[in-house]
Amino acid sequence: MLIALTGSSGLLGRAIADGLMAAGHQVRGIDAVPPTTKLTSHLTVSLEDFGATVQALAGADVVVHAAAIPRPTGRVASDVFSTNMALAFNVVEASVMLGIRRFVYASSFSVLGFPFFEKPVDLAYLPIDEAHPLAPQDAYALSKTLGEDIVDAAVRRGRLDAVSLRMPWIQSAATFMKDVGPRRASAESGRDLWSYIDARDAAAAFRAAVEAKTAGHLRLYVSAADTYSETPTAELIRTAFPNVTIKRPLEGHATVIDTAAARAALGFEARHSWRDY
Questions:
Q1: Could you give the domains of the chain?
Q2: CA 20 to 30 Å from 201, out of 12, 138, 166, 257?
């Protein structure tokens, strides 16, 4: 299949491209900056231009939309929101116009309100699953939540079959200690639910979503199987969320994000841990 991959030059995009190429797919990378990994082809395109977006996606069998400003920090909030919303709307509508039925959206666990909240998020229970209430506060989280709604609107019209993958912090062996190391000093707060996903596991989830025969719009959490902390999960929860309801035991360093739905729908199983880096 020919997959049009937006955001192909970023950490997530590179990993997705590598996974799809290794599986024998053709990948047309689409990004505002030059390619950073092997692709079948690459287009330097501003996806804020709808006409250019249509041209960039033409001929693809599947669209994977991973392009976005990845966090609200260091940017004007209105820029984060307006850019991410414009990209999501243009890529979805261009896919609909071109008759591309399969769509995979890079969403985020930030739809829950983590980790960029201003007022602490009230958790209903742990581990988190797809039934947990959403509570976005910041521009990035709101853009990802509404991005899923844009996808859902096209699905509701009968024009797409889609999967939205809600991921925590994406990491690799090269980035983990630099990015996560400083966070451990404040891990007691649970601000990011001690969650991450190895880029290779994220890529495997996207490949599975591309190849799956699912219908409608699935919104699925994917995560590493463990937390990034060296403290047992039960102890982390007692410190950060002492009154939260625990739906099932979380032994050892188990993640607080339940990925059972992704396993059932896509066969997703996280295979990589920072403990192996």
A1: 2-276 (3.40.50.720)
A2: 138
